[in-house]
Amino acid sequence: MPAPSSPRKRRKEARPAELLAAALTQFVDKGYAATRLEDVARQAGVSKGTLYLYFDNKEALFKAVVQDGIVPVLAEGETIAAGHAGDSFTLLERLLDTWWSRIGNTAYAGIPKLIIAEASNFPEIAAFYYEQVISRGRALVIAALRRGIEHGEFRPVDVETTTDVILAPILMLLVWRHSPGGCRMADGDPRLYLRTHLDLVCRGLTRPPHPVRV
Fold first, then answer.
1. Judging by beta carbons within 10 Å of its beta carbon (0-12, 13-18, 19+), is residue 50 exposed, middle or buried?
2. What is the model's pTM?
3. How far apart are CA 147 and CA 85, in angstroms?
């Protein structure tokens, strides 16, 4: 009968995930500049030297947090979009619901505020975030809008601008929720906010049954 794995071995194998969880907490609570690797290691219960076994520096650690927790959700959204057979507005709803449940309602939702606050001081992480997250997220919405227009479900719009208009209130929701005491909206019902936003988007995009006279 094989001997059970030792606690020491299981602990070592678990360290990367523990370090990423601790890093996410530190980045969201303190921001990029103020996060120290020794604090991440201490929260994860390992030495700073152990952290360096897995990540060369703070930038590599931040990128790993994004790639581990956010990028897979975008990949899931791309899979949803590729296999969606219903109407285009339902596709937008599914994409937003997936994003909210996996990102917006978790600690990862604090990352956009970090990027907004510190992009000018750390352009390399801002460029990484734009390439890995923002551009792929925008592409999902753009594709859904174009699909709706092509199928006659949505009225013709400038899809690039409309995408920004759809995403901006969602981004502000995250900023509010991660700004303690900064705005009373942080205490509101995010699900109601998102349903209201989607209702307005639907009414704005839907092609009217008859031409509107002005």
1. middle
2. 0.85
3. 11
One-letter amino acid of 26 = Q
Query: Do residues 44 and 19 touch, judged by C-beta distance below 8 A?
Result: yes
Domain boundaries, the chain: 7-57, 70-205
Write the DSSP assignment of 57-122 as a string of letters: SHHHHHHHHHHHHTHHHHHHHHHHHHH--S-HHHHHHHHHHHHIIIIITSGGGGHHHHHHHHTTT-
CB 172 within 8 A of CB 109: no
For residue 206, what are the β-bridge partners? 154
Angle, helix 58-69 to helix 71-83, in steps of 10 degrees: 30
CATH tag, 7-57: 1.10.10.60
Give Cα separations from 2 to 5, 6, 14 (angstroms).
Answer: 9, 12, 21
pLDDT category of residue 15 using cuts at 50, 70 and 90: confident
State the CB neighbour count (10 A cutoff) for residue 154.
25
Q: What pLDDT sits at residue 186? A: 55
CA distance 154 to 204: 9
3-state SS class at 206: strand
Lowest mean pLDDT segment, chosen from 98-107, 169-178, 193-202: 169-178
* Class of domain 70-205 (CATH, top level): mainly alpha
